[in-house]
């Protein structure tokens, strides 16, 4: 159904015939960590996330998985990427 409270005209999974079924009956405004994200929707009442009703929950345990402004790595840090296997290193030095 389409939202009628905070984001009028947008499709919302929490909207029912009785109104917004999200905790508290409406979406929460974005938090400071959301600044720069492409999913921010600005309307007369404030700034809200277009994808999730409570952005603070998404940022509670690290980065938001919906954030478009945060670059995710390949899972390896710089130290792990440059780590050399000690066995291979000893064989290389023995060849010389």
Could you estimate the helical fraction of the residues in percent?
A: 10-25%
Q: Which overall shape is indicated by the principal axes computed on the Cα atoms?
A: rod-shaped
Mean pLDDT: 81
Distance between the termini: 71 Å
Sheet with most strands: strand arrangement: 1-2
The largest β sheet comes out as: 2 strands, antiparallel
Tell me the series of helices and strands, N- to C-terminal: EEEEHHH
Low-confidence stretches: none
**Strand elements, count:** 4
Strand fraction: 5-15%
- Which structural class matches the secondary elements? alpha+beta
| Number of DSSP helical runs | 3
Q: Give me the Rg, rounded.
A: 23 Å
List keywords for this structure.
3 helices; 4 strands; 20% helix; 12% strand; rod-shaped
Explain what this protein looks like in three dimensions.
The chain is an alpha+beta fold. The chain has a domain at 15-81. It contains three helices and four strands.
What's this model, at a glance?
This protein has three helices and four strands.
Layout of secondary structure:
Blueprint lengths: L14 E2 L2 E2 L19 E4 L2 E4 L5 H5 L18 H4 L4 H10 L1
Antiparallel strand pairs: 1-2, 3-4
